[in-house]
Write a structure and sequence with these properties.
By secondary structure, the chain is mainly α. It has a domain of about 35 residues. The chain is about 55% helix and about 0% strand. The protein has four helices and no strands. The chain starts with a helix and ends with a helix.
């Protein structure tokens, strides 16, 4: 995994495979019956009974800070794994 192109391709493929699994999971979860509540897909068809305010949905940085303070641990915020190896137009032209 030292080569940035290999790292990027591996990361990109892994994300796509995970996305397929997550989509299947979400679809099956939303189609199952919750005892005493109903089926999420059918419940969502009637709309949301109340609006969620923006302060309940913080952006990613604020959410990460909240997690750090609540859990007492730290998250890895910056990672070079999966970064685009084509940092410039000239490098992109070499591979096209």
């Amino acid at each position: 995994m030292e080569d940035s192109l290999t790292r990027f391709c591996t990361s990109n493929l892994t994300v796509q495979v995970c996305q397929i699994g997550m989509n299947r999971f979400v679809h099956s979860w939303n189609a199952h019956r919750i005892p005493g509540r109903g089926i999420p897909n059918q419940l969502a068809g009637t709309g949301t009974p109340r609006q969620i305010t923006a302060d309940l949905l913080p952006d990613a940085t604020v959410a990460a800070d909240m997690y750090d303070s609540d859990m007492g641990s730290s998250l890895t915020r910056i990672s070079s794994f999966g970064s685009d190896p084509f940092l410039s137009e000239s490098r992109t032209a070499l591979f096209t």
